[in-house]
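Most newcomers find our protein records easier to grasp once they have seen one. A record pairs a protein's sequence with a compact description of its fold. An example says more than a description, so a record of this kind follows:
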Amino acid sequence: MRRFLKDADKRRDKYNSDIVRGWVLELIDLATRAGDVLEKYAVEVTSKRGAKNLKKRLRRFTCILGECLALHKIGKETADITFRMAELTKKLESISSGEGSSSFQCNDDQRLLRQTYGRGIEEHFVGMKNDIDLLVSRMQKDDRSYRVISICGMGGLGKTTLARKIYQHKFDFEAHAWVCITQKLRAKAIFQEILRQLLPGENSEREEAELVRELYDIQKAKKCLVVLDDIWEIDHWHILKNALPLAESNSKILLTTRNQMIADTEFVYKLECLTEDESWDLLQKIALPIHESEGSSTANSKHFKAIGRELVRKCGCLPLAVSVIGGILRGKLYLGDWKKVLENIDSHLKHGKGVDANNKRVVHVLNLSYDVLPYYLKLCFLYLGCFPEDKDINVEGVYLIWMAEGLISSDDKGRNETLWDVAERYLNELASKCMVQVKMSAEGFKSCRLHDLVRDLCLSNGKDENFFEDSQGKIRRLAINLVDDDAACSVGRFKNANLRSILLLNNQRRDLDIKKIWKSLFSNALLRSLKVLVLVNCEFEDNKLPYALRKLVMLKHLSIRFCGVSELPEFVCKLPCLQSMELRSIESMTLPNSINKMGRLRHLLITKINGGIRLRLDGLTELETLIGFSSKVFDTNRIQKLTYLRSFGGYVHDIESLSVVVEHITKLKDQLRAARLEIGVSDLSSEEGSLVIDSLTHCPLNSLRIDGRLKRLPTWDPLLIQNIHTLSFFRSRILDDPMETLQHLPALRSLWLSWDAFDGTEMVCGSKGFPRLKSLRLWGLSNLEGWRVEEGAMPNLSELEIFRCPKLKMIPQGIIFMTSITDLTIWGMPNNFMERLRREGEDYHKISHIPFINLEIPGE
C-alpha cells in the first residue's frame, strides 16, 4: 500500500479527478487501518501466548474468551480491509497502466538532491537598507513624535524581519518587549508577556485591569520599546493600546500588520517588494552555494542570469516567494533544471490585481515547494502543523513523534543508521528546501518552526489529504493549545475520533481544569489506538498521572513536560508498545524499579530524578538514547549492558562511576552520534582521579563540564579529539595556562572558565589558536592579571563575556583584530578596568568595532 502511495505521489496532476483523489485518500485510510490491525494483533493476542509458569497459564486460561473475541474483531476488520483493498487495486492499477483517467501520467521531474539545511531569511538578508535607515531615524526622535510606527504590507514581504532589525538596533531604550499577536487575540496573555519582558522577574499573575494599569505606568516612567508583531484586527489594536501611554511618554510602539486599517496613527511605513536586482541577489544566495555565487561562471552566466531574473519577476519580487523558489533550486547547477522550474512556475502563480490575487500567488509558490517534496517528507512536514503558531519546536520531540507515528521509513535507513538519524536527515531536507526554519546549536539542530504562511499551507494540505482526519470525518491527530476557558468543551466535540496522536499544550500556563479535559478525552474507548501522547504544562490532581493511561496499550511515545508530576506510575512501564519517553520537569521525579523491564524502550530523555534506591537499566537492551543519566540514581555498573546507545548525556558524581562511564562510552565511540558528560567530583587531583581524566583523551565526547579540582588538564591529542565542541571548567584550579592546550582543539566552539577554573596569573592565546571558537566566557578568575591575544587568534569568535576578574588590568590588545565579534559583555569588573573602556578611555579603540557592547560601568 505504501509503495503504491509513494508511486502515486510522483505522478502528475493526481488530484485533478475528484474520484481518483477519493480513491487515493481511501487507500491512505486502509494503509493506516492495516497497520493498526497488525499492532492490535501483536498486543492483544500474540504477546499473551506462551506463558511459562502456572500462574500465568491459569490467568491466560481465564482470558481465553476475551482473546477469542479479540480475534473475531480483528478477523472481521482484516476481511473488510482485504475486500476494499481488492476493489481499489483494480481501479488504481488500471489508471497506473494508462487506462481510463490520465491523472497518473508519469512525472519526469527528478527528485531534488538532498542539500544542507537552510538558515532562514536572516542568513540571506538583502535589501531593506533604506527601510532600516528611515525607520531608525524615526525611532531616535525624542520629541514624542512617531510614538507608534507601523510596518504594513502583504504577507511574505518581510515585515517581521524588518521589525527585528529595528528591534536589535542600538537605541537608548531602558526596556524592551516583543510579542506576537496572531489572528486570535489573547489580551491578558499578551499583557503578561509584555510586563515580564519590561520587568524581568516581576510576577505577572494578576487581573487584566491591573496589568493594563501597571504597563501604562511603567511606560510612562521608563523609555520603552514595545513591538507588537502580526496584528490582524483593528479591534485588537484598540484593546491593546489601552495599556500604551501614547500621548504621555517617550516610549515607542512598533507594530507589523497586513491590515492597513490598523496602521492609522502616527507614522505608517508601507513595505514594498524587493527590487529586481535585490531579488536576483537573494535567489543566488539561497539557490547557489557560496563558492558558486562568488565570481563563478555558473552565477555569472548570462543564461542563468536571464532565467533567474525571469523567475524573480514571476515571483513579483516578493521575498517569501523568491526564498521558496530558491529552496527548490538549491543545489541545481544545470541550466535545464532552472528551465524546468521556469516552465512550470506559471501554473502555480496566479496573475491578477489586488491583495487577494497577490496572496493567492504566494500560496501557489508555497504549494510549488510542497508539491516537489518526496512523499516521505510530506507526511513529516504535515505533522509540524500540529504545533502552535509562532513557537519554537524542540527537534528531539519532533523526531520521537515522527518515529512513533511510523512516518520515518526503515527502508530509508543507510548503513549503520538508526531511525533517529533518518529523522534528522528528513528535517535537514525540509530545512534545505526552506520549508522549515531551524535554529542551530553546536551539536546540530536545536529547534525549528514554520513561517506563518507555510503553516497555513501545512494545515490546508493536511486537511485536503486527510492527514488530520480520515475520509469518514474521524479525527486522527488532535493538537489542543490549552489557552481558552472552553478548552474542555472543545475537546468534547471529538468523541467520535479515531485518535493516533494527542498533543495537550498549555504553553501559556493557564490554570485550567485539566480533569474535565482528561475526562472528555479518555471517555472515548477508541483511544486504545493512540500512539502519541504529549502533555505540556498540564497540572494533575495530587501531581499524579491519571490511571486511565493504563488503557493506552498501543502508545509508542509519551512526553510529559513540566506537568508537576512527582512520580512515574508503575503502570506506564507496563505499556507494551512504548518506545520513547520524554520526562522533562522542574522538580525531581521518582522512577519505579520496573523501568528496567521496558525491553522495547529505545529513547529515554529525562531531566531531574530523585535519588534513593539505585535503578537498573540493563533490561533496556534496545535503548539508543539516554539523556539525563545520573550516577546517584542509576546503577552505573549496569550501563555496560546498553550496547546500542547512540546518544548519551549524563551526570557523574564519583570517580568509580566516572571510570565505568568513560570506559563504556569509549567502547561505543564508533557508533555514538552525541555524548555529553558532566562531572561533579569535588577533587580529581588525586592519582586515581588523574588517571580517569587522562582516559578522556580517547573518549568521543561532544560536550564536557568538569566541576571540581583538577590542577592540570587532560593530555588531549588534537588528532584524537575531533568532536568536542563545548568545554566548561568550574572550580578546577588549573595551575598551567589552559589556553596552551585548549586552543589546539579543532572543533571547540564554546569555552567557559569559571570560579577559579584557572589558578594562574596569565593566559596567552596564540596566533592560530581556537580556529572555530565562537563563545568565550571568563568568570570569577580571581588570580588572572594578564591576558594576551595574538593577531589571528579566535578568528570566528562572536561572543565574549568577562565577569569578576578583579586583578585583570586591561582588555587584550588583540581583540582589535577580532572582526567577527558581535557581542561583548563585561560586568562586575573594577572601576579602573571599566574606565579604560569608556568612549574617551584609552582602551575604547580596542572594542569600538563590536556592534553590541554591554558594559556595566559604575555611575551609568
